[in-house]
Amino acid sequence: MGRLRLSGLKQERIDKLTTLREKGIDPYPARVSRTHTIAQALNLPLNEAGVVAGRVMAIRSFGKTCFMNIKDGSGKIQLHFRGDNIGEGYGLLSAIDIGDFISAKGKLFNTKTGEKTLAVEEFSFISKSLSPLPEKWHGLSDIEKRYRQRYLDLISNPRVKEIFEIRTKVISGIRRFLDGKGFLEVETTTLLPVASGAAATPFSTYYQALGRNFYLRIALELYLKRLIIGGWDKVYEIGKVFRNEGISLKHNPEFTLLESYEAYADYQDVAGMVEEMIPSVCEHALGTTKIDYGGSVIDLSPPWRRLTLKEAIHNKCGIDIGEYPDADSLRRVIMSKLSPSDWQIWEEEVSWGKLTDRLLSTYVEPCLIQPTFILDYPVDVSPLAKRKREDPKLTERFEVFIGGMEIANAFSELNDPLDQRERFSQALHDEEEIPDEDFMEALEYGMPPAGGLGIGIDRLVMLFTNQTSIREVILFPQLREKD
RNA sequence: GGGGCGCUAGCUCAACGGGUAGAGCAGCUGACUCUUAAUCAGCCGGUUGGGGGUUCGAGUCCUCUGCGCCUCACCA
C-alpha cells in the first residue's frame, strides 16, 4: 500500500476499476460519443434516440431496474436502466459509483410521475471517480473545505455556481457598457519597478534577469493616465491588483479592479456615468435593478443621493468639519463627543483629511444603504485628484456607497504637473504613497483634463449576490497553506 | 499581529459537571422491474486537527502548536 493511505471507500472504487479493466473496459476512454447536452436531450421528441454524458449524482437501484441522475454543465436528467433492455450490460451497473462520469444512449419517455427520463439502451464509462462526493442531502458546508476544494463546493451547492456565473455577467456587463460608450479596453503592466497609484503596501518579487526587485501593481491608475496622455480619450482596464495587507470580510490580497479614464470629462460627468452603468450592469446580470442586500431592498435606479463629505459627517456626527480646519481642533471635538473608552483610534497623530475619512468610514458608511455619492474629499487623502476651485483644501472627488460598502472612487484627475509633484512629496512624507518619477515626467508633456473611475468588482458582486464575505465571490480566496 | 469561537467516520452532525466514541447519508452483502432524501435486513467504517501534560481513566481539563471563522488595527 506504500505511503498512500487509502480510505476503504477509495480502495473499493479502485477494486471496481480493476475489475472493469480486467473485462476489457477502459474507465477513462479518450473519446465520448455524445450527441446532445442534457438540456438539449430534455427537449428531444419522445422515442428519438440520443447520447448524453455527465456525472452520476444519485443511484436508486431495485433488483432488475435502476434509476440514476446524471448532470452535465447544462442540467440534469434521470436515466432508467432495465435488465431486459440492456441485457448483460446490466451487471456492470454495480461498478458505477456516485461521482463517475458515464455516457448513455437511449430514448426519452415519461415516468408515472411525469418526469422526462432517458430509457437507456447502452451506456459507457467515461471517467471513474475514486473519491466519494459530499453527501447528497446536506452537501458540503464546512467553510474551509468549500474554499480549499472549490470544485466540491461547485458540485454540491448550486447557489455557489450561480454566484460565480453572476460574477462573470457583471464583468461582461461592464465591458458591454463601456465598449458601447466608445471606451477602449487595454491591458497595462502588472509587474512594476515602482508600485504607485494608491496608498497600499505592495508585494515585492525579484526579477532574476534584471537583477533587481519588482513589485506587483496596487492600482491601474498611473498607467492608464499615461495612455490618456498618449492620445486615447477613453480607456479602461479590468484587472487584478495586489495589496500586501490583512484579509477581512471585505478584503482579499488580490482583487479585481475596474478603472476607466475619460478625457475632457470631470468628476460630475463620471458620476453621471456610474449612475447609469451600475443599474445597467445589474440589469444585465440579474434582470432587475432592485436588489436585496442584508435584508434591505436597494433600488439602483438613478438619480442617486448626492451629499458632500462635510454634509454627510454633519448629519451623522453633528460635527461641522468646516469649523475645525486643522487636525488638532478636529480631534478635540471628536473626542469630546465620545466616551474615553472610544478614544483610542482617534488619539493617533494623523492628518485632518485622515480624521474626516475615518469619521466617514466609522459613522457614515455603515448607514449608506441606498446608492449615495459622497463628494469633495480633503486634498491630503486624494493626492491624484484635482483641487476644487472654490476650496483648495478639497478635491473634485467622490465615492459611491451602496449597502454600507464603498463601491466606487472617482475624481477629476490632477493634470497640473507641478502640483502633482508637490502632492507626491507630501504623500511620501506621510508614508501614503510612493512617487512615480516616470509618471511625473509623462505628465509634464501635458494631460488633458480627465475624469477617472475605480470600482471594486468583487464588492459589486457581493452586492448583487447578497454576500457579506468577499471570499464568497472569489473562486480561490487566499488561505494559509494547510500543512 | 491582538482578542473570541471552532476542528469528532468520505459528508452532515451527536456524545450534559471527565467513565466502553454514536446516528443519518455514502460504502459493502442480501431482497426488490416506475424510483427520485426509494424501502427493508445485516455489516464495514475513527490516531476526536497535531504534540506534550494532569488523571485509575481525556473528545471533554491544562499547555504548546496548525488551520478556519468572527472581531480589532492597515486598506478597497
Give, in spatial order, the strands making up the sheet with the most strands: 6-10-11-18-17-16-15-14
The first-level CATH class of the largest domain is given as: Alpha Beta
Q: Could you tell me the CATH topology label of the largest domain.
A: BirA Bifunctional Protein, domain 2
Q: Can you count the helices?
A: 15
Chain oligomer state: single chain
How far is the N terminus from the C terminus? 23 Å
Do you know the CATH architecture of the largest domain?
A: 2-Layer Sandwich
Largest sheet: 8 strands, mixed
Q: Can you tell me the overall shape?
A: elongated
Low-confidence stretches: 1-5
Q: Give the averaged pLDDT, no decimals.
A: 92
Describe what you observe in this structure.
The chain is 32% helix and 25% strand. By secondary structure, the chain is of the alpha+beta class. It has an eight-stranded mixed sheet, sandwiched between helices. Strands 1-2-3-5-4 form a five-stranded mixed β-barrel. It has a three-stranded antiparallel sheet with strand order 7-9-8, with no helix packed on it. Strand 12 and strand 13 form a beta hairpin. Helix 5 packs across helix 6, helix 6 packs across helix 8 and helix 6 crosses helix 15. The radius of gyration is 29 Å and the shape is elongated. The chain starts with 7 loop residues before the first helix and ends in an 18-residue tail after the last helix. It binds one RNA strand of 76 nucleotides through helix 1, strand 1, strand 2, strand 3 and helix 4.
